[in-house]
UniProtKB/TrEMBL annotation:
Its EC number is 4.1.2.17. The lineage of its organism: Bacteria, Pseudomonadati, Planctomycetota, Planctomycetia, Pirellulales. It comes from the Bacteria. This is Probable L-fuculose-phosphate aldolase. SUPFAM superfamilies: AraD/HMP-PK domain-like. It is an enzyme of class 4 (lyase).
């Protein structure tokens, strides 16, 4: 998670993040509230009874340390529990409360998502808690929630209500909220198709202790091809976040520049906010000075080394395809012609192969099999261009969603071998 010095005003930070949460359909017009505690002890918070989809910076309220209120509206009716959390946890500087559908589902079942689905979700979400019901806007609700945070929780489900997460800065709080909802959505989807597989302590440690060792170097001036690839990566990473194929803390995207060099997303940076200049140039054992490449960079490099035809690679966590990754149920893409033509047969890679230093991750994709399911870690998709890789990622996720939906209707009917043979002939598939 990001812990860099924040120079953005709380009004702008809250306004922009609420816009993002609303755009992602993770809250409703009237639901949810965000707050920041500044270095002077003031609490900046969203207002009561203002359209969350049309919030302006002037709508954000400041409740000063002396209790006075600055702003054109009253503060959120949930201000009491924000205040209670800040009092219980001096380390907390930001709070996100919203009603994302998946976590609301857990709240009305009196349960919490098990974040051991993925190493990143488990790391980002921190300790998970459950706060018993109390009427919204009351001091009793503040006491119930604050007790969970006082006990060391960072992500708390509110019974029959929603979720509250807190962080040491606003970026951390948002990323925690997003990762928690992602885990919840994936669990709900996965439970519709099979038994869910969770990671044990050694598997979590395996991912946590991986490292990427590159020697820093100063690359020459960027060619027009590099500039163009940076633009494309920036565009498609942002699009992927907005289409929920990627989330801010998960996934990596790269494009080959030359035989031994490629551009890749940086580590520990919010994916949607990346600029073209943020992508990291990797050349052999070297990486661009002043930047840290994605921790998946070695896996990308192994794939490029083995497969000269691959020009772009994406590791991603779209919810429906990722649901297959946390079960043992195979994803059969022989459902509609487009799915098979774009993806062929999707391989399944065992957990942790992408972290190993033996480069075996490259064995799970080839020209005949451009995509793979990574156990408990989403999907891997390759392409001949950035657009091609992104297109295949979209098709993979759409296919997975269609298969999950179909299972709720009846038996899934896949195309027979004669149909597959016809497709191979028609589209020159080797």
């Amino acid at each position: 998670m990001s812990h860099s010095r924040d120079v953005q005003h709380p009004r702008d930070r809250i306004m922009q993040t609420m816009d993002r949460i609303y755009r992602y359909r993770m809250t409703t017009t009237s639901g949810g509230n965000l707050s920041i505690r500044d270095s002077e002890g003031n609490i900046w918070i969203t207002p009561a009874r203002v359209d969350k989809g049309n919030l302006t910076r002037n709508d954000i309220i400041c409740v000063r340390a002396d209790g006075s209120v600055d702003g054109p509206h009253p503060p959120s009716s949930e201000f009491p529990f924000h205040k209670a959390i800040y009092e219980a946890r001096p380390d907390v500087k930001a709070i996100v409360h919203a009603h994302p559908v998946a976590l609301v589902a857990f709240s009305i079942c009196r349960g919490t998502p098990d974040t051991r689905l993925f190493h990143q979700a488990h790391s980002v979400c921190g300790k998970v808690g459950f706060a018993p019901y109390a009427c919204p806007g009351t001091e009793a609700l503040g006491v119930s929630i604050a007790k969970q945070f006082e006990d060391g929780c960072d992500s708390v489900i509110l019974e029959n209500h929603g979720v509250v997460v807190a962080g040491e800065d606003f970026a951390s709080a948002f990323q925690r909220f997003e990762a928690f909802e992602f885990a919840g959505k994936t669990l709900i989807k996965a439970k519709q198709i099979g038994e869910v597989r969770y990671l044990n302590d050694s598997q979590l440690d395996q991912a946590a202790h991986r490292s990427v060792d590159f020697i820093s170097y100063e690359p020459p001036a960027a060619t027009t091809r590099e500039q163009e690839l940076r633009r494309q990566l920036c565009e498609f990473v942002r699009r992927g976040c907005r289409q929920r194929l990627l989330i801010s803390t998960e996934g990596s995207f790269s494009a080959r520049l030359k035989d031994d060099s490629f551009l890749i997303t940086p580590t520990q940076r919010d994916r949607e906010l990346l600029r073209a200049e943020d992508f990291v140039l990797v050349k052999g054992e070297f990486r661009e000075y002043g930047k840290l490449a994605s921790r998946a960079a070695n896996a990308h490099r192994a794939i490029y080394e083995k497969h000269p035809h691959v020009q772009a690679i994406v590791f991603a966590h779209p919810v429906n395809a990722t649901a297959f990754s946390v079960t043992s149920v195979p994803l059969d893409v022989r459902t509609i012609p487009e799915s098979y033509v774009f993806l062929r047969d999707v391989a399944r890679a065992p957990y942790g192969v992408q972290y190993s230093g033996d480069k075996s991750i490259a064995d799970y994709v080839c020209s005949r099999n451009p995509a793979a399911i990574l156990e408990n870690d989403g999907v891997l998709v390759t392409g001949t261009t950035v657009l091609d890789a992104f297109d295949r990622l979209e098709v993979l996720e759409s296919t997975a969603e269609a298969v999950i939906n179909a299972k709720a209707i009846g038996d899934v009917s896949v195309m027979q071998q004669d149909v597959i043979d016809e497709l191979c002939e028609q589209f020159n598939l080797s």
